[in-house]
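JOB MANIFEST
job_type = single_chain_structure
chain_count = 1
residues = 144
[input]
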Amino acid sequence: MGEKEDRKTPMSRYFLHIVTSVLLSILFIILFSIPLEKIPPFMLFSLIGALTPDIDQFLKLGHRNPLLHSFLIPFLLFLVKPKHLIFTAFSVGYLGHLIDDMSKTRQYWVIVNERVGLALLWLSAFIIIAMLFGWNPLSVLSIK
């Protein structure tokens, strides 16, 4: 995180996360024919999902902390509310946030190095997409 990013206003800091998530939500609503009466709560939970990863800044965890900038939070929500509007909308917004972060060069959270951080962001995005399309992450634990 450089000086330039520190000088951003709170609104500009979150604007692209919101825009990316809204566009992704509109695409999801159209593709999956979300009923009209469910669109307002869908958009609300999508916006909450879009802003959730950045609460790491307020919790003093360091920006782009792997606990909040990964698939972990959507996965925990999946365990509580699988195939539910709240899980779906939140995860679409969360995915929008990760996609927006992936588009920014040299600003990924880093565990070992920048490449590992970028790879984990991509992996997280793919896991969230898979859960949105019906994959049950718990199925990898089943033994046949």
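[summary]
The radius of gyration is 15 Å.
The longest helix spans residues 10-31.
exit_status = 0
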